[in-house]
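Sample entry copied in:
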Amino acid sequence: MIKLPSLGDEVSVWMDATPAEVWDLVSDVTRIGEFSPETFEAKWTRGSTGPEVGAYFAGHVKRNGVGPTYWSPCRVTACEVEKVFEFAVGTDAITVNNWGYRLEPKDGGTLVTEYFRMEPSLFTRVYWTLLGALRGRTNRNGMRTTLERMKAVVEQ
């Protein structure tokens, strides 16, 4: 039997800040350009103005930090204030990937976990089997960079 690679991963960083302080960073998509090495800006779309389930936004991405550059449509799929912020990347008909943040009060601060999960379609399974190790490493490094940049802001 062939063991398929996991279609996702996560990175956690402890921050000396309350879940409320961290929430303000992870749920405000318009600030992602301050933190992410790939998504350099984002804006709410389709009349959405803030984080809530069903809200739409678009992220302006520079793949691998060097290109190509494109806009990714996103839709908020989970939004529990100070706990979980998750969004799907793709069209209304097809979700390609899911990204999110989990916040957990811990040791007087917050353990922040950023994660991604590819949809288990045939296309993504083939893509991930061929390029998953390389892309997974890029995603893990990007998540760590994003969280460390958030930590620097929220702890200052």
Summary: The radius of gyration is 15 Å. The chain is about 25% helix and 40% strand.
